[in-house]
Structure formats: C-alpha cells, structure tokens
Amino acid sequence: MLRGMPRFFTVEEANALLPELRETLTQLRETVDRLQQVEAEVSALRWKARGNGHNIPDEPFERRRVLREAAHRHIRRVQELGCELKDPRTGLVDFPSRRESQNIYLCWKLDEAEVSFWHPTDVGFAGRQPL
After folding, report:
1. Cβ neighbour number for residue 9 with a 10 Å cutoff
2. Where are the domains of the chain?
3. Residue 56: what pLDDT?
C-alpha cells in the first residue's frame, strides 16, 4: 500500500479487527461520557464564578484535559487500524472497501456482532445495505 492511499478491507479483515475495536470504542464511549460530565461541571463553575467573582479551581480543567487526551488516543487507535470513526457515541465505524470495482464502506456499529452492511461512500449510514 502506498503512503496516503487508503487500505481496502475485505469483510473477513474487518471482522478480524472487531475484538480490538470493541475494546477501544467501549473505552472511548466511557471517556466521552465522563468528558461530558466534566464539561457540564466546568460550565456550571464558570457560570457561578461569573456571578460571584470567585476563582474556578484548576482540578476540573485538569480532568477535562486528561479525558480529552484519552479520547484522542482512542480515536487515533481506530484511525491507525485503517478505519474511519463516524460516531463515537454509537461506535459507528466505516472500513474502506471495494465492491464491483467501486469504492464503498463496510459499515459496523459497536452493538453489532459482525460486519454485515455496506454503503456507497457518498451516501452514509442512511444508505446501509446488507452484504
């Protein structure tokens, strides 16, 4: 494969990555959930400080930084595997592939047992079709 060229997956190759993807995407989902909680806490603290002139403690900002870094690590791992992360909340991943000489995506979500769908590259999730 040439540098900068996408890797094209077979269904078997995509399915072989699912154990690692499940672990990574589960960790990413948990990280995103915790990050949203911290973001809400930071927002509330900023609102409160604006009203009473108090300083905001550094601790929530540090937790936010650590969680953001963790989320970026998980996203990078998915990308390193050659996949395209479409939605971290649902664990939606596309695998570049070929079908009848056309570029397509094999489409998989975290709650699915295996890769069972595909869609054209210009259509997205709404155009999923069974393999």
Report:
1. 22
2. 11-130
3. 67
